[in-house]
Write a structure and sequence with these properties.
With 142 residues, this protein is α/β, with parallel strands linked by helices. The chain has a single domain, classed as Transcription Regulator spoIIAA, CATH 3.30.750. Helices cover 39% and strands 24% of the residues. It has a six-stranded mixed β-sheet, with helices on both faces. α1 packs parallel to α2. The radius of gyration is 14 Å and the shape is globular.
């Protein structure tokens, strides 16, 4: 695991030696500003990749609720506009269905359906890694 960025709130690293799986781990409750900064950092790494990658967002323990403070819709719209072309799959590990429902609703309301097909949801890191493995085996990523 190669750590690219680390703070008390989140860490970004390559999960594998081939740099095909980017892992963004969220350790504690974050604000919408933290979310924007973390996902933007992750997106910048994904945009610099010279091959297709998959990203896993791992909300540890009970931090998978929506970020604190203010409205997340403008933040989500900004992040949606910054869709790394080499990022072919995003798996969100979350124990709370509220985040999945919120993201799905915002995606439909703002016609972000083109992005919805690349998002999956898992309950554990092992489940997420299996989804990535299956996706890679399907030949949808290079």
């Amino acid at each position: 695991m190669e750590i690219l960025f680390e703070s008390p709130i989140y860490r970004i690293c390559w999960h594998d030696d081939q740099r095909q799986i980017l892992l963004l781990e969220i350790f504690q409750k974050w604000t919408w500003q933290d979310a924007y900064e973390g996902v933007t950092r992750s997106n910048n790494i994904a945009k610099a990749a010279t091959h297709d990658i998959c990203t896993i967002l791992y909300f540890h323990d009970n931090v998978g609720m929506l970020p604190k403070g203010g409205s997340g819709i403008p933040t989500l719209r900004q992040l949606a506009a910054d869709d790394p072309p080499r990022e072919k799959l995003v798996v969100i590990i979350n124990q709370n269905a509220l985040l999945e429902i919120f993201l799905s609703t915002v995606g439909k309301a703002y016609r972000l359906g083109h992005m919805a097909s690349k998002y999956r949801y898992a309950k554990t890191l092992d489940e997420a890694l299996q989804m990535v493995k299956h996706f890679q085996a399907s030949g949808k990523t290079g």
